[in-house]
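Tokens as discussed.
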């Protein structure tokens, strides 16, 4: 504006500064929205696997500072393929959304909730022991239109806590499914 061939009003200088600052804010907000979208499951709104890894790392760091365990609950909707085949994918989507909503409403604040894929979800909670996490898991699977099986794991916070606890909780979940089939 100082080098313009015609005199520029003082207001133009102020508008120039405001536009630069506004553009920086808009690009920052768009970048944050893109990152948040990349870490969330678009159907349920909970974390996806990538978001779960990031959130689990933060949860593990908080738990380590407080000398707390981390507990995991893995959930799997029983016979989900049959629901989709019988009632359609929209019905299956409603079941997944309902499960995610229940998890979001009932888990303690600061917990990590993620859809690992398909019909499998995980909840990570700091500060609960095996008895407490089992009671929470039983509460979370009650009241759904389909049966949901869960598995639990409790461990110390550390590197790759999500992967380690998921493996143990998955094994527990499949053990529970086998027990259910035998009865």
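Sequence:
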């Amino acid at each position: 504006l100082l080098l313009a061939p015609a005199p520029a009003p003082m207001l133009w200088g102020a508008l120039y500064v405001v536009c630069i600052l506004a553009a920086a804010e808009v690009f920052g907000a768009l970048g944050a929205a893109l990152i948040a979208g990349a870490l969330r499951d678009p159907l349920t709104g909970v974390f996806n696997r990538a978001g779960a890894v990031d959130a689990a790392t933060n949860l593990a760091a908080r738990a380590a500072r407080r000398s707390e365990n981390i507990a995991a609950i893995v959930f799997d909707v029983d016979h989900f393929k049959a629901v989709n085949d019988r009632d359609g994918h929209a019905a299956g989507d409603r079941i997944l959304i309902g499960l995610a909503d229940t998890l979001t409403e009932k888990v303690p604040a600061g917990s990590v909730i993620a859809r690992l894929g398909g019909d499998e979800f995980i909840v990570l909670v700091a500060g609960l022991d095996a008895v407490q996490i089992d009671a929470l898991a039983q509460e979370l699977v009650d009241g759904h239109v389909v049966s949901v099986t869960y598995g639990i794991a409790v461990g110390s916070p550390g590197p790759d806590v999500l992967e380690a606890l998921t493996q143990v909780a998955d094994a527990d979940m499949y053990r529970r499914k086998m027990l259910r089939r035998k009865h």
